[in-house]
Specification:
Layout: H1 3-22, H2 37-41, H3 53-64, H4 86-98, H5 109-126, E1 133-137, H6 140-155, H7 160-163, E2 171-176, H8 181-189, E3 197-200, E4 202-203, E5 208-209, H9 211-223, E6 227-234, H10 246-255, E7 259-263, E8 288-291, H11 293-296, E9 304-308, H12 312-318, H13 349-383, E10 388-390, E11 398-403, H14 410-427, E12 433-437, E13 440-446, H15 454-472
Parallel strand pairs: 2-3, 2-6, 6-7, 7-8
Antiparallel strand pairs: 1-9, 4-5, 8-9, 10-11, 11-13, 12-13
Helix pairs in contact: 4-13, 5-13, 6-8, 6-12, 13-15, 14-15
Amino acid sequence: MDWKDFSKWGSKAVDWAASYNEGLRDRAVRPPLVPGKVRDAIAAHPPEQAEDMETIFKDFEDIIVPGMTHWQHPRFFAYFPSNAAPVTVVAEYLVASMAAQCMLWQTSPAATELEGKVVDWLRQGLGLPDGFSGVIQDTASSATLTAVLTMRERALNWQGNQKGLADAGRLRIYASEEVHTSIDRAIWVSGIGEDNLVRIPVQGPNRGMDVEALEAAIELDRAEGFIPAGLIGSLGGTSAGATDDLEAAIAVGKANGLYIHIDAAWAGSALICPEYRYLAAGIEGADSIVFNPHKWLAVPFDCSVQFLANPESQVKTLAIKPEYLKTQGADGIVNYSEWTIPLGRRFRALKLWFLLRGYGMEGLRTMIRNHVAWAEKVHDAIGVMANMEIVPPPMLSLFTFRLAPEGMDDEALDALNLRLIEAINSDGRIYLTQTKIEGKFVIRFQAGNWTMEEQDADTAIAVIAEIAARVEEGAE
């Protein structure tokens, strides 16, 4: 195919995308899990000669699509969503067509300047102070890694990159037991080591870190010759929405000279609604904050925004300026590749710009408020079902539950709930996932899909009630 044929096939792709999304409610959310089925349907060797687009597109429809889990399905209630509002898909189409490499201002002047502007729009929308600037990362995992590297370098007086870590002393990073596993990976990759991630126990209904225990851990580490370097706070943990008392935790971090990063990957989007900002009280004291518009703001994956109180520390940690990357004859420019680990960068700002203009902040607030209300509706309905237990209380549009008949021990209850979630997901009308809370196997429900309507919450209630009754009777 060449550009002469692009219009035809581009139009077909657009028509297919519209039809696909309009018909998702009629599909099972997740296909039957048959390992190897797609692999075996694909030729064992690459073609020697070009194939026609009719054949390629037909194979896409016949082989690939039936084997996909449908993340845009309105009844996808499992993981935090990876949304794709139509206006953002148009933006991605344009980005792919231009195929720009946005590593430097000179390689992408408009992309660089738009990134600065839309990140500031989001800063305003989330209610962060004027002093914060930011950068678009690929994922929260990358943003967290950059923050951990900055913690490391700052604590080592910027000598780690140059001299290595062999004689640097043992750094300590503090986080609650509920943080995402991307924190662990960041600790690994940074060379700090898993043993130096100090996990602070959680307490209270929000399952936030015990701030007194945090203070005690820092004091003990200093006494034993460790170097406290950083604190990672949680706003809406992945498992069950664990949220730290950020104001108290940040105060402890600042008093001890720690670099403070807040993981708000999912729940951060809710801060565009003023009534939810109480959950993030004190967040303005952080050095680094990450949230993912590709989760709850309907932007296609990947698009993660990291806000920085002072980007100089991160730039000092990551920037490399060989002669071939210098921009001559231009002052006051920003090269965002100096704020991130990869040199190469996609034009992610365009889809954010299209989204914010195409729906407006109020349109996005309405979406989030609906999701919270519909999740509360499902939560309340499950809460009055026979033998159902909600553990712990809900956080925004996320809660966990389990089937808990009297007289069963923990092992039997875990097995019962495993059967329940397997039966629900095999049914195909909705899709849920699981986690463990204090060692108990529980089922997660999370409302957040762009296409969800209240009828989908009603379907979830009906499906859970129907299948739970069958499982408890032993029919599943």
